[in-house]
Amino acid sequence: MIKTALVWFKTDLRIEDNETLVKAIAQSEKVIPVYCFDEAHFETSVYGFKKTGSFRAQFLLESLEDLDAKLRTLGSGLRIVMGKPEVEIPKLVQEYKAQKVFAKREVAFEEKQTEKKVQTELFKLRCELDTYSTSTLYHAEDLPFSIKNIPDVFTNFRKKTEKDAEIRPPFTAPKQINSPEIPAIELPTLEDLGVSKTTIDSRAVLAFKGGESEAIQRLQHYFYNTQSLSTYKETRNGMVGADYSSKFSPWLAMGCISARYIYAEVKKYEMQFGANDSTYWLVFELLWRDFFRFMFKKYQTKFFLYEGIKLKKGNSKSLNEKLLSQWVNGTTASDFINANMLELQQTGFMSNRGRQNVASYFCNELNMDWRLGAAYFEEQLIDYDVCSNWGNWAYLAGVGNDPRGHRYFNIEKQATDYDKNKAFRKLWLTE
């Protein structure tokens, strides 16, 4: 048993099914929950877009407020610091004389670099960094293959994983946390983070609000209040309204809810209302999320290269400022693309169907470096997740995991198939 430990929260802002928190409580007499606003997350990337735009920044602030409130009911609270984690976390270790820092394990390149830097600084203070894999549905250790041998084709990965691996049960939320007195939470403003405030357009599919409480409320609504889960497979390609899909992605991305918690609820739901293709399909989509995360473990930096993991030429490497601006601002030659891009710009969200179309349009019709599109999504998306975003963009650019190589969407056909009465276009293109 160690005397004092820090729990460094990152994109795991929850109490339910949080192994990092559970293990810290079990192994330490006192626990100090911490969140560090990493200044690197608010910089402008090499592509000219901010790494975090206003929608996600606002969602993050709401999530932290909710986490702090939940921790306080358990006798703790959340310490907030700002700066570089490799500077701020060791400072707190010294302040509290902590022997260990518990944190979520990272897989993407920049996040791994930060983790290593923190570990190096903690080592100088004779403090350990313990990390836990808390983001996926299947635990990496339970996969029927080593990371380097994971199939690059999703279907092969899915079939073998479903057949030979088990999903672990979620961890129960702690009943109490023994912490020293933690001062009242003081969150930075959007201005402090260098982000301008924007309000979500009233046409948004959902008024997304951050936090575990909101995530669980959304699950209750989608599963039990409306039983929308039973028709998910038929409606998931929708584009207008709150319930054509689960909309769990922003909370999953911020870790306000875990994939395993959702899975356990799907199983409960199936006991009550019956299992069908739709209840399975939600789990299938969670598996896609796992797949990209494991691909990042396997390929590391390659998903950020122009050639992707295929190491072959994709679309053009060019940058045409005018075309980029038309795409971003929804003034291209395609009304379907424009409606989707306006929705993204004004709400931070876009349907899965929309994302595939605007990415295909960017890569194929505009023929620009796909990474510019991925970087713009990184700034705008309220549900940005590094692995899913860059993995999906590489896939559509033909340099990722798509077994068919170059995937091309016929935008007009897609518009007719998925917005045949133009309800979506009318919503976003009518002033």
Automatic annotation (TrEMBL):
Cofactor note: Binds 1 5,10-methenyltetrahydrofolate (MTHF) per subunit. Binds 1 FAD per subunit.
Domain of life of the native organism: Bacteria
Entry keyword set: Chromophore, FAD, Flavoprotein
Location of the Photolyase/cryptochrome alpha/beta domain: 3-137
Pfam entry (one): DNA_photolyase
Cofactor(s) the protein needs: (6R)-5,10-methylene-5,6,7,8-tetrahydrofolate; FAD
Function: May have a photoreceptor function.
Similarity field: Belongs to the DNA photolyase class-1 family.
Protein's name in the database: Cryptochrome DASH
Record lineage: Bacteria, Pseudomonadati, Bacteroidota, Flavobacteriia, Flavobacteriales
GN (gene name): phrB3
